[in-house]
Amino acid sequence: MESQLGIDEVARRTGLTAHTLRYYERIGLIAPVGRAAGGQRRYAASDMAWIEFLLRLRTTHMPIGKMQAFAKLRGAGDPTVPDRRQMLEEHLTDVLAGIEAMRQSAAALQAKIEHYRAIEQSLASDSISDEGHVNEHGKSLRARVRKTA
Questions:
Q1: For residue range 6-61, what is the model confidence (pLDDT) as tens digits?
Q2: How far apart are CA 3 and CA 44, in angstroms?
Q3: Distances from the Cα of 124 to the Cαs of 96, 114, 145, in angstroms?
Q4: Is the pLDDT of residue 142 over 60?
Q5: Banded pLDDT at 131 (limits 50, 70, 90)
Q6: Which pLDDT score is estimated for 137?
Q7: Is residue 4 within a helix (H) or strand (E), and if so which, with residue range?
Q8: What residues have CB less than 8 Å from 3, skipping those under 6 apart?
Q9: What is the mean pLDDT of the segment spanning 74-96?
Q10: What is the pLDDT of residue 3?
């Protein structure tokens, strides 16, 4: 017999709240879950696998509306496999573009960090050799430090 989990255990394992799990079921992201004799939700391994996939989609920033559309196609069965594949391919293209944009942004941040490190080193070496002195433009080192911030 297949092992089944209660909503609290599923929440613990997935990091979702019980409220979120019920919400996902209500909006059609999760098909109606089996119930125990007392009416408590009982999640099967297949439910867990689907929830884990939903979490992957959420991690990739797929909008909830698209997740719902995907879940609806999934619920319609095998005839929708080509539509589901196409939907995931399109989303993957968006995800990869986002990753590239993040990579470029990370590189820009790294360059700015290196720029500020160079300024810090310059200020540190200036303060060692010129501490308390006025530079060639008539500004004290302390004024330069405040302006750089």
A1: 999 999 999 999 999 999 999 999 999 999 989 999 999 999 999 999 999 999 99
A2: 6
A3: 42, 15, 10
A4: no
A5: low
A6: 54
A7: none
A8: 44, 45
A9: 98
A10: 73
CATH 1.10.1660.10 fits 1-75, yes or no: yes
Location of each CATH 1.10.1660.10 domain in the chain: 1-75
Tokens 């019920």, residue located: 22
Q: In whole angstroms, what is the distance from residue 57 CA to residue 67 CA? A: 7
Are 119 and 127 contacting, i.e. CB atoms less than 8 angstroms apart?
A: no
C-alpha closest to that of 34 among 13, 11, 72, 4:
4
Return d(Cα 125, Cα 129) in angstroms, integer.
6
Q: List all residues 6 or more positions away from 83 whose beta carbon is below 8 Å from its beta carbon.
A: 73
Tokens matching residue 138 = 């008539």
Confidence band of 139 (pLDDT split at 50, 70, 90): low
Task: Note whether 66 and 76 are within 8 A (CB).
Answer: no
Q: Confirm if 60 and 91 have CB atoms less than 8 A apart.
A: yes
Task: Please give the C-alpha separations between residue 9 and each of 5, 15, 20, 47, 77, in angstroms, as whole numbers.
Answer: 6, 10, 13, 13, 28
Amino acid at 48: M
Q: How many CA atoms lie within 13 A of 17 on its CB side?
A: 3
